[in-house]
Amino acid sequence: MAMEALFSVSSNPSFSSIQTHKNTTSLPFRTSTSLRFSPQLKGYDFHGLPPLVISRKRGLKCVSSDGRLATSVDEGGSLEKGVRRKNLAVFVSGGGSNFRAVHQATVRGDVHGRFVVLVTNKHDCGGANYARENGIPVIIYPSMKGEPEGLSSNDLVVALSKYKIDFILLAGYLKLIPSELIRAYPNSILNIHPSLLPAFGGKGYYGAKVHKAVIASGARYSGPTIHFVDEHYDTGRILAQRIVPVLANDTVEELAARVLRQEHKLYAEVAAAVCEELVIWREDGVPIIQSKSNPNHYS
Question: Model pTM?
Answer without folding.
Answer: 0.74
